[in-house]
Please model this.
Amino acid sequence: MKNIIQRYKSTAITKAVSVLAELKKIIFMRNNRNNNGNFVQNKINYLINSYNDLIPYSKQNKDLNYFYNGTNIDNEISRLTNYYYIENVLKIFLGAIYNLNNIHPLDYIIKALGCNIEVLEKPKNFNKLLSTEEDYIYNYINTTNNANVPITAVYKITNSINDKNFNLKNFDNRYIFFHGTKVENVIGILSQGLKIAPVQAINTGKSYGNGIYLSDSFTVSLGYCSALNNGLFINNFRNRNKRFMFMAEVAVGAVGRNADTYVVSMTMNFNNYFTTKEGHRIFKNNGRLNYSSGIIVAHEETNVRIKYLIEID
Model:
């Protein structure tokens, strides 16, 4: 039996995710009686039918009541958006297997990703005056890491494709923010960059519109990081509890709900930063505070590029 990646083009999956995101908003209106009766019900039926046309073999399409639950819609969106990254990952792994006699699999994967990955040296003395990029990155992580989660390593990432398409509007106010993700999405993000997906907005519990969701807090983004799911193979994998988090450079541009970047909430100060040789800004902080909130939404993919990857125990 063909899986969903084999049956459908990525464009159909993307459209299906958008349909479900709109459906959840309409269901919310209906449940809160903020609706126009038959018009809302007709819209719901139209969206459900549109989804079933795009994903006709979904096991949920036999029970229309399934879509009247917001959590079910979230789960369906999450399932579909994961395929966006999984498809590309499968192609890379198949290529690594095919070229097994010619190149080491890890070398093939890194080459296929189009990335250069290097370890960011950890400062030996965190009490010294901060002066380098490494100092400020680790300080940014440590001072917003409320739970003192152990950090295995931080890697600096360069990707020629993402770099070429970044900051097309030439904004000067480029800052580093955190982005948590599932471990199975890491390779896809490394190769394709962060993508706008409605599921990210829905999973925050509030709708701030479509965009790439980030935070100025390690602690906030940690809530969106997850390790490998349980399974016979995974349970015997010694690194199954590893998690990963990205630090992305965001060309902030104009700030506002309908502008380049929507700042929902922040703890850091836009005027207090260290500028690297490459020109991006790392927030300064001289002490540990309670970083339990902080959400920003980048409205354009070309305003965001991956700069660092955090490996978490």
